Automatic annotation (TrEMBL):
Residues 132-221 form the Glycerophosphoryl diester phosphodiesterase membrane domain. The keyword Cell membrane does not apply. The chain crosses the membrane at residues 29-50, 70-91, 112-129, 135-157, 178-199, 205-232. It comes from Mesorhizobium prunaredense. The lineage of its organism: Bacteria, Pseudomonadati, Pseudomonadota, Alphaproteobacteria, Hyphomicrobiales. It comes from the Bacteria. Keywords: Membrane, Transmembrane, Transmembrane helix. This is Glycerophosphoryl diester phosphodiesterase membrane domain-containing protein.
Amino acid sequence: MVSTTLERPDKFRIGRVFNDSFAVISRNIVLCLGLAVLFSGLPTLLYQLWVWNWATGTETGAPEFSVQRAIVTIVVMLVSMVLAAILQATLVRAAIEDLNGKRPSMGDSLKMAISLLLPVIGIALLVSLGAGLGFMLLIVPGIILWLRWSVAVPVLVQERRGVFGSMKRSRELTKGSRWALFGFWIILIIAVIVIQLVLSQLVMVFGVTTALILDALVTSVVSVVTSVAPAVSYVELRQVKEGTSVDELAEIFS
């Protein structure tokens, strides 16, 4: 349990968000990693094994393209989108519950996530489309838009404002803190890249199957961090902007 009587921070601090994020994960390691393996790691492993078999089949004379392979790829993308949305919403709810000093319930968090599945997917699609177009134009606009909407899902989960209302609220909360948010995510992205580079070397040492299993585990851990961190950032931003305590955040669910 954590204390819910928190001093109002003067600004968004990267170190505090990192500490709180990993503290939430460590207190709920079984719930977080269990869900991440189920909804992210295992699907990733199965798909990568299928791709590997596809690639080796191509080398032995199998056709490089087939309708069946195209259909499987599309289905995998759609299923991955749904699973990622459920995982993110579940971990966001669990993180905020933990910060409120409660013991997150897997069943309750999953139930809530499934009830918000379509809005979460809607936010993911709109953010990806908007930021993607920004990246195609000048890169910087894409980064700005992505940072602007980076806590839209926690807003949706906690405040139930709908897709566009949550994106607008995220824009308001992140205003004035986007450089700090940018630095926070740059550190996370660099850490992921380093891990992936190390992992690529393990293919030659341990073989493909072992490397794919390790990659699936790394994907699970990354999914946990990138789902919990926005929830912690949301709480931090509300405390910075509004002086709102975690207790007040929890009143919405009372």
